[in-house]
Amino acid sequence: MTSTTEPTEPLSVEQLSATTLLRFATAGSVDDGKSTLVGRLLHDSKSILTDQLEAVERASASRGQDTPDLALLTDGLRAEREQGITIDVAYRYFATARRRFILADTPGHVQYTRNMVTGASTADLAVVLVDARNGVIEQTRRHAAVAALLRVPHVVLAVNKMDLVEYEESVFAAIAEEFTAYASELGVPEITAIPISALAGDNVVDPSANMDWYGGPTVLEHLETVPVSHDLAHCHARLPVQYVIRPQTAEHPDYRGYAGQIAAGAFRVGEAVTVLPSGRSSRISAIDLLGEPVDTAWTTQSVTVLLEDDIDISRGDLIVPSKDAPPTTQDIEATVCHVADAALTVGHRVLLKHGTRTVKAIVKDIPSRLTLDDLSLHPHPGQLVANDIGRVKIRTSEPLPVDSYADSRRTGSFILIDPADGTTLTAGMVGESFAAPEPVKDESDDDGWDF
């Protein structure tokens, strides 16, 4: 039974945790133990079914293993199970008494780093694993850079396999110090370091008896209590139009609704709104949510908005508050992660998908590529290859209403698509930059492009 009493005091962290969903991603180099950590989380939090555990026990026994290999709980592809590695992004849903979780277990191989972009793009938290024997390596830095680029607000450094370094505090401290310094330089806002042994279960769900020098939370405890921001008052309200609803029935002869999922913020009946890129304005006359009228709708809710005026609106348009409209532009500068095997080059003709709108575009320039070892910028590389992170300048055929990625992860992001076969080439974040690249001469006035 749901109470109808409105809360008079702000929710505490514990109360908020019980009512919120945490999306988090795991990342790390090959054999750092990501799948084992996820399996341990699911197993020790009693979030797996009996038949799932029995299947893992049988598979482990067939390999000659005395104990269940918990990594098999997440390695779903046959190639993953046979090779003992993670290839695809594996999503898992589970819950404890304090919080619900959507977990994305991402691959560790360099050639699958692009998959981390997929897994972490909507994450509130990223768990970056490090093998205590190896410390911070290039792939660790790459994962930290992707987490920073995607503005994941919370990063957990899980120093795994502490049992193989005799649970030495000095080993953990040195790795935590190095990683924290590097990630802080990237701009990661919050870093929590936890020493663990996923195989033995130390500090994953239950506190470890082998590391009495550590007084912080276990991995699960931190996941259950880390604050997830739900303050919508400071979000830029954005509604990408996905579908125009016109039933044209005798009961609703004049009904014209604009349906979509609210990307950010909140909309209210009576609010003045502007439709972009046309710039036409009106007021919200009604909001339908699940077939019922409501006065206010929030982020992630799928709604149908009705306006007071009859305006030409179609799929791909963006409805925004008139007092908080983003600028429209045909020139976009962004930091991107290239995810395709084929290189992205200057002059490349692509499709750019922003929200529900797709337009033609041309890559005008690639000012720099990020070198992960020292965070330096390699100027004018000419191209980006798979897993490269770099800066690009793009010219679109039509004006687009884009936010800075720092202001809105949903409406400040885009993907570039190969128009020949529909392959996703690049994931981009508008305005994001680790450092300012060297200025590049703009020759767009006489380059011969037709937009």
UniProtKB/TrEMBL annotation:
It comes from Streptomyces fructofermentans. PROSITE patterns: G_TR_1 (PS00301), G_TR_2 (PS51722). Residues 19-231 form the Tr-type G domain. This is sulfate adenylyltransferase. Its EC number is 2.7.7.4. Pfam families: GTP-eEF1A_C, GTP_EFTU. GO terms for biological process: sulfur compound metabolic process. One of its GO terms (molecular function) is sulfate adenylyltransferase (ATP) activity.
